[in-house]
Amino acid sequence: MHKALTSSSPIVRPPQPAAVSTTNMDQLYSSLRFWLVNHPKILHFQWIQGQTLGSTPHFLGLTVLTYLAVTFLLSKTPLPSLGPNILKPITALHSLNLFLVSLVMAVGCTLSIVSIPSPLSHVVCFPPDTPPTGPLFFWANIFYLSKILEFIDTLLIILSKSKQRLTFLHVYHHGTVVVMCYLWLNTSQSLFPVALVTNATVHVIMYFYYLLCVVGIRPKWKRLVTNCQIAQFVFSFLVSVLMLYYHFTGSGCSGIQGWCFNAVFNASLLALFLDFHGKSYAAKQKAVVDKDKRY
Q: How does it sit in the membrane (predicted)?
């Protein structure tokens, strides 16, 4: 015979949705921190010139020169058309790949930043003689290698016969950004984690846009992609002011030579992007005006 339930009997209540959600989020965060920050391969990463993949000046020089030479030769050589049935799946796969890689890099480097025991000011200004080791430099290395993977962008433009998209801005950006990333690692450059997160985030948006376009969806926020690219350069200069403050009022920041190259490169890109943005917007406005005149 069952005992009757009294007012003093404990009542078992099911877990509340908010509590379950919080637990799941904590588990997800712990998993991400392990796989993207605390995994031994990441936690104990070391950039060693001559041993780490891509760490020698010869590799860097050969990579950039090969990219420029192949781009020039292919752009001047008549190539057979692959057709959309072949080119579109390749472009979609490439865009999806770089979308996912950029997302992982943005999340991984962000988690590495918030996980460091030292003050966040050290992310902006590494102490002098900081060794290129640990999670932040692991993601810098992945970012560096991903820029070589982005050379495929240029190949796809050439194969698609879209020569008008093969601009000086495109080739200059793809060729020089590899040098910039190499200097991040080789000089233990201060401020690079901020640049990595912002650039990877912009690339998440950009390659997602490209992916949608190649599968037949034309988002109306194309201009947002260019605006985000411009905004990241402006933001980098604003944060650089803080880095320079730390550098000149403290004991100095690591990798200031690399930062100088980075600053000049970003300034040139900002000027080129603003010019591109202005010309593209002006051409679009002119097309609208001409269309109105016809009617």
A: Multi-pass membrane protein
Q: Worst-scoring range by mean pLDDT, 56-60, 185-189, 265-269, 283-287?
A: 283-287
Asked whether residue 8 is domain-assigned, the answer is no
Alpha carbon separation from 69 to 54, 73, 188 (Å, rounded)? 19, 6, 30
Rg (CA), the chain: 24
Cβ–Cβ under 8 Å, residues 211 and 95: yes
Cα distance between residue 93 and residue 188, in whole Å: 33
Q: Per the structure, how many domains does the chain have?
A: 1
Question: pLDDT tens-digit profile of 198-209?
Answer: 999 999 999 999
Query: What distance in Å separates the CA atoms of residue 188 and residue 126, rounded to the nearest whole number?
Result: 8
Cβ 273 vs Cβ 229: under 8 Å:
yes
Residue 27 to residues 17, 22, 30, 31, 106: CA-CA distances in angstroms?
15, 9, 5, 6, 20
Q: What are the two backbone dihedrals, phi and then psi, of residue 191, each rounded to the nearest 5 degrees?
A: 80, -10
Residue 190 lies in a domain: yes
**292 inside domain:** no
| 109 to 37, 52, 138: CA distances (angstroms) | 8, 19, 9
Class of residue 53 by CB neighbours under 10 A (exposed 0-12, middle 13-18, buried 19+): exposed
C-alpha neighbours within 13 Å on the C-beta side of residue 257: 9
CB atoms within 10 A of CB 289: 9
CA distance 271 to 282: 16
Reported as a single tens digit per residue, the pLDDT across 59-117 is 999 999 999 999 999 999 988 878 889 999 999 999 999 999 999 999 999 999 999 88
Q: Which two tokens stand for residue 7?
A: 């007012």
The Cα–Cα gap between 217 and 108 comes to 29
Residue 44 lies in a domain: yes
